[in-house]
């Protein structure tokens, strides 16, 4: 199936992974302009956690659209912002109690960079191999998921140092804890040889790798990073842009690791599809940010605020976080059964409804080709999936948190047929 491309009036920098000329979405489904129905297990890359056009969220947006479309935050006091902040505080630890809002994930990461430099007076930041933090220059400088994101844009922001992640030694002879020890030793080595604690403002990590391969690291790795940050008085930033708001079966992925960040970066699932992001920190830390030194025209937009407040209510009242855990375990178990039957599926991993299925070729080489072939075969049968990982070797499952077991069963039938066809079986 050949894919469409945008007209010459739209920049080709946008890749296009499907040929769907979308008309509307409802729940887990998308419909094209000819009426064909697709199961959308991408959720707009982890955005529509409540499903497409959840009626309660749509109604909240409609009501707000009749009152105010834009209220610039530095000109007007808008109590809706306090309402949103209060809604988010209820699902976070008490220490995370002060927020700054922006439009996109990249903007939120840029905000975190600015905050830690102001708050600490230190210039440098350590990131981790395989992380994805955005495509603006500051955020891109912290991104190492794939070279395509960075290629042609160098030199990037200075003061960034990259430390290893245990995933990138998964095919060695080391066991899990040996890999963790190696990575934490290397992190200490970086602090002793490249950026001293006295000049290191923060470390930033996705608790669960997103674009880098949907990898859940050992708990001891995340806890070890927290311990090193505490030891050297370095701030710890968790980028939960993709993992937040119930995606992993918890409101936030850091809950799986029994570790709290100093700064939490949020976006994607926060507003069910409307642009909104932010960072959350302790007020004492946030108060070190110089007034007027950062800001923006559009965020937080009143429509996005209304959508976010209602989204959090829906997550809570419809028990969608619990459903994410329950349905995620069901999907993980079913994919494990498929793995046991297909040697080309070398790993199935994830938390909640953020699950990766890693593939290799018959000869044991990179699974880039086969994963992409499986994805396209699924698309031709009405199931939309995406790939990720440094070689696009991982099929990622990101269903809406409203997904039911019957939806999973239907999708897995398509997936297994597509897998067999892709392997010529």
UniProtKB/TrEMBL annotation:
One of its GO terms (molecular function) is transaminase activity. Its cofactor is pyridoxal 5'-phosphate. It comes from the Bacteria. Gene3D superfamilies: Aspartate Aminotransferase, domain 1 (3.90.1150.10), Type I PLP-dependent aspartate aminotransferase-like (Major domain) (3.40.640.10). The keyword Transferase applies. Keywords: Aminotransferase, Pyridoxal phosphate, Transferase. Belongs to the class-III pyridoxal-phosphate-dependent aminotransferase family. PANTHER family: AMINOTRANSFERASE CLASS III. This is Aspartate aminotransferase family protein.
């Amino acid at each position: 199936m050949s894919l469409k491309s945008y007209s010459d009036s739209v920049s080709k920098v946008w890749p296009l992974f499907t040929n769907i000329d979308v008309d509307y979405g409802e729940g887990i489904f998308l419909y094209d302009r000819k009426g064909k129905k697709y199961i959308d297990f991408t959720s707009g890359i982890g955005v529509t956690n409540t499903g497409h056009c959840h009626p309660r969220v749509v109604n909240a947006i409609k009501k707000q659209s009749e009152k105010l479309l834009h209220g610039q935050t530095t000109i007007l006091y808008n109590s809706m912002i306090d309402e949103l902040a209060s809604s988010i505080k209820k699902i976070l630890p008490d220490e995370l109690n002060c927020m700054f809002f922006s439009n996109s994930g990249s903007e939120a990461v840029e905000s975190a960079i600015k905050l830690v430099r102001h708050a600490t007076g230190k210039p440098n930041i350590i990131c981790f191999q395989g992380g994805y933090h955005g495509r603006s220059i500051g955020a891109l400088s912290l991104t190492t998921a794939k070279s395509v994101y960075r290629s042609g844009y160098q030199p990037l922001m200075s003061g960034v140092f990259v430390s290893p992640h245990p995933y990138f030694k998964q095919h060695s002879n080391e066991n899990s804890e040996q890999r963790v020890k190696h990575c934490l030793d290397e992190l200490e080595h970086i602090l002793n040889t490249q950026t001293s604690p006295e000049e290191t403002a923060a470390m930033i990590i996705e608790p669960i790798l997103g674009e880098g391969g949907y990898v859940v690291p050992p708990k001891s790795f995340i806890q070890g990073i927290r311990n090193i940050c505490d030891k050297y008085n370095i701030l710890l930033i968790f980028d939960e842009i993709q993992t937040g708001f119930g995606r992993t079966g918890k409101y936030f992925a850091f809950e799986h690791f029994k570790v709290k960040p100093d700064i939490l970066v949020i976006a994607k699932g926060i507003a069910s599809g409307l642009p909104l992001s932010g960072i959350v920190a302790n007020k004492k830390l946030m108060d070190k940010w110089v007034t007027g030194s950062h800001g923006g025209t559009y965020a937080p937009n009143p429509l996005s605020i209304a959508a976010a407040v209602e989204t959090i209510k829906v997550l809570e009242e419809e028990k969608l976080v619990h459903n994410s855990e329950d349905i995620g375990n069901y999907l993980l178990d079913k994919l494990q059964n498929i793995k046991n039957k297909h040697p080309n599926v070398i790993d199935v991993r994830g938390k909640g409804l953020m699950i990766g299925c890693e593939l290799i070729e018959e000869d044991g080489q990179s699974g880039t080709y086969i994963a992409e072939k499986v994805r396209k075969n699924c698309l031709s049968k009405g199931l939309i999936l995406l790939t990720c990982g440094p070689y696009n070797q991982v099929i990622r499952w990101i269903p809406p948190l409203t997904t039911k077991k019957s939806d999973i069963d239907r999708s897995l039938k398509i997936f297994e047929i597509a897998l067999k066809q892709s392997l010529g079986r």
